[in-house]
Amino acid sequence: MRLTTAILTVRESVVAIFRYRESSPATVVNGVAQPAQFECGWGSGFCIVANRYVMTAFHVLNGGAPRNPADKFIAFVVPSNGNTAYHFPVIGFPLEKPDMDIAVLEIGPPAVSGIVLPALPITLSAPPDGSSVLTLGFPAPEIAGLNIDPLGNYVGGNFFLKSHANEGILSAQYPLGALNVYEFNVGWHHGESGGPVVQFESPLAVLTMMQQYRQVSSPHGIMAGPHRGCSFADIRQELLNLGAQIV
Length: 247
Description:
Largest sheet: 7 strands, antiparallel
């Protein structure tokens, strides 16, 4: 498959994941209403079962710490990187694997009817080093406005949300403790964690996700090195139980 075609296909299945939590409640000071304040975070993910399950990196949920029950999550889609973002509420967390930095989120019906989130297939086979890969995620936007109702539900916002594609190769693969790890010559931006790393030569399928980087020593100290993601082979049964397509 051509890269240009792969980007168009993959983009429609990738989501931006928005996390928010009230950090201070609304108050009235000297007769003036002060709105509630919120702590926010962003990540990316991709659909593995159409309009139902989205996979992301576990650290997107709370920086690698256990998920905070007070946090709320929304999955945004921006079809064709157009002018309108649509959102799905996150209603459950059927899989959380901090040891693999993997989580699966269950989404509810979209706020606007008729919005479809197609699934991407997953491969558990390791392609050879040098294989072409595509990454796609949502760099975290600046939030210009956020509208949360008194019950804590998201009702609107103002931010520039666009997905970002990149290409490269599978540079190395090796066991790291209990994990099988892939390295890539592709970098990614803050907010893209959890977005898919896709082999786009037949069959098009998600190989891993954008998770972390290897630290390397330099004359200037420890620096960010090659970017990595782990194989999904160890969660094969969990993926099948959820209804994901394995190719």
